[in-house]
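Weekly structure sync, notes
Attendees: PL, DS, HV (note-taker this week)

Item 1: Fe2OG dioxygenase domain-containing protein
DS walked through the input record. Source organism listed as Tagetes erecta. Sequence as pasted into the shared doc:
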Amino acid sequence: MMKPSSFYRLIKSMPCSSFVDGWILKQYHTIPAAILGATITGAIDDSKSFSLIHPHLVPGLDGSWTNNQTSSCQILLPGMILLKKYITTLGQVGIVNTCQRWGVPQGLYEPLNQYGEKLRLRMTCFGRNWDPITGYEKQDAPQKNIPYELIHLANTSIKDAQAHLNLLPSNFELPSMSPDMCLVNFYSCSGRLGIHQDCDESDDTLRKGLPVVSFSVGDAAEFWYGHTRDENKLRRVILESGDVLIFGGKSRLIYHGVKKILTNTSPWSLLQAVQLRPGRLNVTLRQF
Ligand SMILES: O=C(O)CCC(=O)C(=O)O
Ligand SMILES: [Fe+2]
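Item 1 (cont.): predicted structure, written out as tokens:
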């Protein structure tokens, strides 16, 4: 019996996969074969080194990852901005493929918390190393550069959010930043993330409120946030595929967490194009 590759798979197994054990095979989207055939060229051979990249689906750097025509901007709190439907389907496909390609061979691991318990997600990072227990302490492990496309998308998102803020009478500040760490999280349908603050970055970053930029791809999530850890006082927002959430300025140290994943809410067009496994991919960029 073949063991699943050590690379954790963002993209679900093809029905003809040689992977027969592990939870990877337990859930399938029911995508009719006719649709698969229309968009995915050729069967994927899982027995070789794991890569499901379809180069023709990776967008160029021509701005096609963003879609300002149909997106909208919501200010959730001072410094906390949600760009709804900001990333095009093509851009979302690009994010999945980029994370998949860049993640080889270590893949996304199941991190532990300080009590030795598994978190309810998988993760990897590009740029500076970070993990939930030691934070940024361990920089000796090999690092992978942050994919340029992700940096570009983060910068464009911040610029667009700033442009929106400039149109408003309020003077909510949203500083720019130069991302040097990119955290990739994948939540299965039962995944979640407890309420926390992102406060491991440098004092300078936190003091200046340099923003975290967060991309959501796949199933939607119920995201809780607010100025307190008290869950009764937190607000909720649904983060959907293609949304970009930015929290900086006065909201840089906001408490937040992912309460639940809303299963079967991935856009059909995304599943057709890239077959992201059931669940949610979240990519955050930040400056240490
Ligand atoms: O998945 C999300 O939307 C949030 C992720 C997050 O809070 C983090 O990685 O620190
Ligand atoms: Fe966070």
